[in-house]
Design goal:
Blueprint lengths: L2 H14 L18 H13 L6 E2 L10 E4 L4 E7 L7 E7 L9 E6 L9 E12 L6 E9 L6 E9 L4 E8 L9 E6 L5 E12 L13 H23 L4 E18 L6 E2 L11 E4 L14 E2 L7 E3 L1 H4 L11 H12 L3 E6 L4 E3 L4 E2 L11 E5 L16 E3 H12 L9 E4 L6 H4 L10 H18 L4 E7 L2 H6 L6 H8 L2 H16 L6 E6 L16 H9 L14 H6 L5 H12 L4 E7 L7 H17 L3 E4 L11 H11 L11 E6 L5 E7 L5 E7 L4 E9 L6 E8 L2 E11 L4 E6 L3 E8 L1
Parallel strand pairs: 12-30, 13-14, 13-26, 14-17, 17-22, 20-21, 22-23, 23-24, 24-25, 25-26
Antiparallel strand pairs: 1-11, 2-5, 3-4, 4-11, 5-10, 6-9, 6-11, 7-8, 7-10, 12-27, 15-16, 16-19, 18-20, 27-28, 28-29, 29-34, 30-33, 31-32, 31-34
């Protein structure tokens, strides 16, 4: 046992009476179903007793379920069960943790067809034999399309107590499936645990009964989950309590004369959240909502995010009052940003149809082409109008750009600077099946990108176009399993390589660059107790969250993800992307207009953001926009705001981190350091202590800087503000400073 583990154990022992072997959690009345709820459930089951239904497992219960994915990590066996309605159960022993919950799963295919809108009921019995290290045994039931894009009708996480518990999940099918086309899964990609599963049925009631009339254990399941969360929170608080361990000296070395690169001012971007004095430089209006945006009426469609609703939410949610005016959503957005000193990213649709009305949900039988949609075209054959014809059944995207240019000026005249070519096209069949139900193809993306980028640049040759807008690794590799992926990957290896090479060919064809930056999104898969993108702040998740930014650059870091597991080597995401650019389309910039490492309300999320902003500047990112839990006109989480302030306004007087990155090194597992010079050659340094319990005496060696002393600002877990501290002297080209656990410290040199 390590000293850190021993220390945590000792703290828990003070509260719980010692450290013991993991055992199944004892029965808890707080997690049990109240008598009234039990009677309601019994009544619901009695009510459907004589309703005809089809068992989608063919009466085989768990016997047709087989492991899929990283099957070496799970062991299945049959065990006898007594005093239950079933005599056997399947024991699922997870031997090794996975980076993703679905990396290993128990899977069965449906044995009968299902129609869209059919009402279904999944029933099974579950118990924990040996919980995970956090004291909980869990799985997640999923009903989904059995091939990309794996559209889900339900994803239902459930935690199992020590005693047998009955789980009933009611849901509706989101689409029609032939027999065998849909899969029923139990996720097992968790840390080591052993759970028992029995009595599984998935029944299709068709449309014979309303969904609300089916039984559901959701209330009891969530009550149990809440009780477990309270216990976990108490354990986590105990684990983080007490005085820190003194870890001795930790060395940092800064070389101000070794210049790495100029830091792009656009790495300090956000999406459409409010900018409240923390110094964001660029703001993006994007996401799924913009794929079917109709600028003529300021209407968009939510797609599968929310009932495929067509409305003006994306405009009114920003607080804009003129959403009946053509283009108002973006005219107001760019104007607000300009007034606040920020650049803007405008999203332009690539798809063939955009929203025709604001009448709410669009049914599957109303998918395009239908009166609920109008045709979207890249270029207008006639003259532009600032008052577009709303009755012609067409929307022209170059006319949209002309509206912005006429009202606000061109990009070089302080108008809209950046234009993004739609959003996450590989996911269109899942996010926007009403306008693009087919799998997106390589050739299609070449043609659509060419048409819209050319249309934008014909109107504003000074605009900067972001292309690709890829959601993550599967899109980088194969455009999420595109039908023509195998054909093109024989020559280009990946879709990302294909896209870059295709854009280079288009530059030669048009005599001008059509795409100025490759745009990617990133939501890391690393997990502790939970995936780090969630709000979880258990010690294990905190530790994983603080290490995860290393996947963006560190050749010695190999995170616990499905990507690293399949590739067998460190990810180095930013250098890898820049290498692909250098080979396939030199001169292209790199952008990341969505990312999130979770827990922006907690110091761990704040420190991850501090780390990321430093990485973006040092490693050569051109533009980056924090997404967080979602955009809209929301307030950035407090610790995320503090992270931006550390770089952009640390003293409340626009004190800023430098704009030229210089060399700085340390032990990357324990800490991070970023250093930069400003235009006056003044040095600033940001040091992060990633340790949960250990304080260090930081020894920061500075070779050749004009630095006699340094102003100090600290961000830690006490509150999400930057605390000014007494200035520290520089002696013999060295700063010595105590670095508290879970903290970021800024040193701003004074000559």
């Amino acid at each position: 046992m390590s000293m850190q583990a021993f220390y945590r154990c000792a703290l828990l022992g003070l509260m719980l009476g010692g450290c013991i072997k993991r055992t199944a959690p004892p029965p808890s009345s707080s997690a049990s179903e109240p008598p009234q709820a039990s009677r309601v459930l019994e009544a619901a089951n009695a009510r459907i007793a004589n309703v005809p239904r089809v068992d989608l497992l063919g009466g085989h219960e768990t016997r047709d379920f087989v492991p899929q994915g990283e099957v070496q990590k799970v062991e299945l066996s049959r065990v006898s069960v007594h005093q239950q309605a079933f005599g056997e159960a399947t024991r699922l022993r997870v031997k090794e943790g996975s980076g993703l919950e679905y990396a290993v799963q128990l899977q069965a295919a449906t044995t009968a067809p299902v129609e869209a809108g059919d009402v279904l009921l999944a029933t099974f019995y579950l118990r924990t034999e040996l919980p995970k290290e956090d004291g909980v045994g869990e799985t997640s039931f999923v009903f989904e399309l059995g091939k990309p894009p794996y559209t889900k009708s339900v994803e239902y996480p459930v935690q199992a107590p020590a005693e047998w518990t009955k789980v009933q999940i009611r849901f509706q099918s989101t689409a029609a499936y032939a027999a065998g086309e849909a899969h029923m899964n139990f996720h097992l990609g968790y840390d080591p645990e052993t759970i028992d599963l029995a009595g599984v049925t998935v029944e299709n009631f068709g449309k014979r009964i309303p969904l609300s009339q089916l039984p559901s254990t959701r209330t009891a399941d969530r009550r149990r989950e809440k009780a477990n969360a309270a216990l976990a929170a108490a354990r986590d608080q105990a684990a983080l309590a007490g005085p820190p361990v003194e870890g001795g000296e930790l060395r940092f070395e800064v070389k101000p004369r070794v210049v790495i690169r100029t830091i792009s001012p656009y790495v300090y971007g956000i999406n459409s959240q409010k900018n409240e004095g923390f110094g964001a430089t660029v703001r993006r209006m994007g996401g799924n909502r913009q794929t079917a945006y109709n600028w003529e009426i300021n209407a968009s469609n939510a797609g599968s995010d929310y009932q495929h609703s067509s409305d003006e939410w994306a405009c009114t949610a920003m607080g804009y009052k003129n959403c009946s005016t053509p283009g108002a959503q973006f005219l107001d957005f760019v104007s607000d940003n300009r007034a606040a000193g920020m650049e803007s990213v405008v999203t332009v649709p690539l798809v063939d149809y955009v929203t025709a009305d604001k009448h709410g949900s669009v049914a599957e039988n109303e998918k395009a082409p239908s009166p609920r949609w109008v045709r979207s075209l890249p270029q207008k054959p006639g003259p532009f109008s600032l008052s577009p014809d709303l009755s012609d059944g067409k929307v022209y995207q170059d006319e949209f750009v002309n509206l912005l240019v006429t009202k606000l000026g061109k990009a070089q005249q302080d108008g809209a600077h950046f234009y993004s070519l739609d959003n996450e096209p590989a996911l269109w069949p899942g996010t926007h099946p009403r306008v693009h139900p087919e799998k997106t193809t390589y050739r299609e993306m070449n043609n659509r990108s060419e048409a819209i980028a050319d249309a934008i640049l014909r109107v504003d040759p000074t605009a900067f176009v972001l292309g690709g807008v890829m959601y993550g690794w599967s899109e980088f590799m194969t455009l999420e399993g595109a039908p023509d992926a195998t054909e093109w990957n024989k020559k280009y290896d990946t879709y990302l390589d294909y896209f870059l090479a295709a854009m280079q060919k288009l530059e030669a064809k048009h005599g001008k660059r059509l795409v100025h930056a490759l745009d990617v999104h990133w939501y890391p898969e690393e997990r502790g107790t939970k995936r780090i993108t969630e709000k979880d702040v258990s010690p294990k998740t905190i530790a994983a969250r603080l290490q995860a930014p290393r996947s963006f650059w560190d050749p010695d870091y190999k995170g616990k993800t499905g990507i690293s597991a399949s590739g067998g080597k460190p990810l180095r995401l930013i250098p890898w992307l820049l290498e692909r650019i250098a080979e396939r389309y030199p001169g292209t910039k790199l952008a990341m207009t969505e990312y999130n490492f979770g827990a922006g309300e907690h110091i761990s999320g704040g420190l991850a953001q501090v780390d990321l902003l430093g990485i973006f500047g040092r490693e050569g990112m051109y533009l980056a926009n924090y997404w967080g839990d979602g955009a809209g006109n929301t307030v950035l989480p407090p610790y995320t705001q503090a992270a931006y302030r550390l770089y952009r306004n640390y003293d409340g007087k626009n004190g800023r981190f430098g704009d030229t990155a210089v060399a700085a090194t340390t032990d990357n597992a324990k800490a991070s350091i970023y250093a930069a010079l400003d235009s006056k050659k003044s040095l600033s340094m940001i040091v992060i202590n990633k340790e949960l319990h250990t304080a260090f005496t930081g020894k920061i060696y500075i070779a050749g800087a004009d630095c006699k002393s340094a102003n100090v600002f600290v961000l830690d877990g006490t509150e999400p503000t930057l605390r000014p501290m007494p200035a520290v002297a520089v002696k013999d080209e060295q700063i010595e400073y105590r670095l508290p656990p879970l903290s970021a410290t800024l040193f701003a040199c004074r000559p």
